[in-house]
Model the fold of this input.
Amino acid sequence: MFAAHEPSDIDRFFRGLTEYAFHSRLGVVDPPLVDYVALLLVRFLRHDAVVSPPATEARGTDVARMLVAAREHDPSEALFEYRQIGDYTLFWSGLYPEAVERRRPSSRTDQLLDFRQAGKRAYWLASTLEPEDAAEERLLFERLSHEYDLCVEGLGEVRRAWGEAA
Done:
C-alpha cells in the first residue's frame, strides 16, 4: 500500500493515478487537462472543509448560493467562485457519485444532471472571465466545460485505480 512520506509524495501519487486513468484506461492524452484534474484531487485532499459530502439538501443549496453570489461579485472574484463550483461538482460527480445521488430529492429525477450542469456552466463562465492575456487558462476552462462528463468518467477510473492500489 502507498504511504506518503512527504507532501510531494501525495502529489506524485495522484498525478500518477490520474495519468494512468486518463491515458491508459480512457485513451485521453491532454496534459493540461489531466494535470488540472490531478491538482484538483490534491487541493481537495488538503482542504477537508471543501470536500464535505453533499449528502444533505443544505449542501446542495450551497452550490446554488455560490452561483448567486458569483453573479454579484466583480469578475476576478466571480472567476474564483465559478472555478470552485466547477471543481466541487466535478470532484463529487466523479469520485463519489453515490454521495451526490443521496442528496437527490425523491421528487426530482434530474438532480444529478443539474449538479453536473452547474459544474459545466461554472467552468464555461470561468473561461469567459479569464483575462484576455490568459489564453491558456481560458482554453483549459473551456475544455473542462466541454469535456466535463469525460473528466467525471476519468475520476471514476481514478477511484477504481486507487482501490486497486490499496
Summary: The CA atoms of residues 157 and 163 lie 10 Å apart. The radius of gyration is 16 Å. The chain has one domain: 7-165.
